[in-house]
Design goal:
The protein contains eleven helices and no strands. The relative contact order is 0.10. Helix 2 runs parallel beside helix 4, helix 4 crosses helix 7 and helix 6 runs antiparallel to helix 7. It is globular, with a radius of gyration of 19 Å. The longest helix has 25 residues. It has 255 residues and is mainly alpha-helical. The protein has three domains: 44 residues; 111 residues, Cyclin A, domain 1 (Orthogonal Bundle); 73 residues.
């Protein structure tokens, strides 16, 4: 059941919707090779409440609290703590900045949350969630007490966190490898299946199976760090077993 918004919250919500559409229009002009007529000034800090400015020792807890509040649907929140634990496992013995990795992990998916992304289907189809996260991250981190000098490295790691990207820093490689691991194993089955019927990409079971099969075939070979490659083995085996069982039980019959 959707909760009713109080008047102050409703005003913030409507304001955020207007600014999301403004940002989407700016991205569309840019993607088409045009030059936006003016610089887009985004007014919204968050949908309902601006994060309070905190002191440096509290910035990690403040980042987590902010994402816990913003992650919608609520299952979107569980990805970040799992991802951070994976970066710690991958990064053992590596000389990297954990503050940069932490912030990138927790903020990289900001643009996929309901309330941050557009809801209109055409605008959503053209939405660049990575560009949105990159745009919002500097202001948010500064407000949350994160070391200002490390913010560009966080933005760079967010920019290159997808499998098709080539990170230029070790922090970026660690975040990217961890995100690939989240697309293998039992966890990717749960993350994908829960989108059926609520994500335009996944209308029926075969839609999800196609994506999972593609993950199993292509993603393990894109991992860069030995520790990540080692962690991928058991996850790939679980995913392949699931795909074989789903096919045997007729779940792919409509393909």
């Amino acid at each position: 059941m959707r909760r009713l918004l109080l008047l102050p919250e409703l005003k913030h919500h409507r304001r955020h919707q207007r600014e999301s559409k403004k940002f989407a229009r700016w991205l569309a002009v840019k993607a088409a090779g045009g030059s936006p007529a003016r610089k887009v000034v985004l007014e919204f800090p968050v949908p309902f409440r601006k994060p309070r400015r905190v002191t440096a020792p509290d910035f990690r807890a403040a980042i987590v609290a902010y994402i816990r509040e913003q992650a919608r649907p609520v299952d979107k929140f569980s990805h970040q703590p799992r991802l951070y634990e994976l970066t710690r496992a991958i990064g053992v013995g590596q000389d990297y900045d954990d503050d940069v990795v932490f912030a990138a992990v927790w903020l990289h998916d900001l643009g996929v949350f309901v309330g941050h992304r557009p809801e209109e289907p055409t605008a959503l189809a053209a939405w660049d969630c990575v560009a949105y996260a990159m745009h919002r991250t500097p202001e948010l981190l500064a407000q949350l007490g994160f070391p200002v000098e490390k913010i560009p490295a966080v933005v760079a790691a967010i920019r290159t966190h997808q499998p098709s990207d080539e990170p230029a820093s070790l922090e970026g490689v660690i975040v990217r490898d961890a995100d690939i691991l989240e697309q293998l194993g039992a966890v990717t089955v749960l993350r994908t299946v829960c989108k059926i019927g609520r994500d335009t990409r996944f209308q029926i079971f075969p839609d999800a199976l196609r994506v999972l099969r593609k993950n199993a075939e292509r993603l393990p070979g894109q991992l860069k760090l030995p520790a990540a490659q080692k962690l991928a083995g058991p996850r790939l085996q679980v995913l392949q077993q699931f795909l074989a069982a789903a096919e045997a039980e007729g779940c792919a019959a409509l393909e």
